[in-house]
User: Fold this.
Amino acid sequence: MVIEALHDGYPTTINLSGADTTFWEETVQPPGIDGGEPINLTNMRNDAVRTRAPRHLYDVTPMELVVAYDPTVYDTILANINVNQAITTTFPDEGYVVWYGYLQKFVPGPNKEGEQPKAAITLVPTNIHSTTGLEAIPVVTGGSGTGA
Assistant:
């Protein structure tokens, strides 16, 4: 199988399981993976270099978005703030990642004449299944991988 990088980031969308689409994504920074700081193994028997080891656990980083929105969605935003739920990030090749997290921030920008109202959104991974309460790692489903 030949895998190609995505040619374009458009469209990348998100879906909160607890809300209908209430905003329109303009920029999307998908959640990342962070292995954490190394474990220092250096001791008095090292001769030339510091030694270290990777951690066993990793972290899923917060997701940042800039969205257009309609002010009538404030009630939906309020109903979803700090609610742990399944979040789906869909990529242009129709691959997607389902992960558990919550809407931490919805920060509207200034409204200006001649510009569409926008807001910054932060989604924070909990890695906890919303109904079982158990650890839940992100589930990745591959797309076409062609960016088409």
User: Anything to note?
Assistant: The chain has a mean pLDDT of 92. The longest strand covers residues 96-108. The two ends are 16 Å apart (CA to CA). Residues 85 and 131 are 9 Å apart (CA to CA).
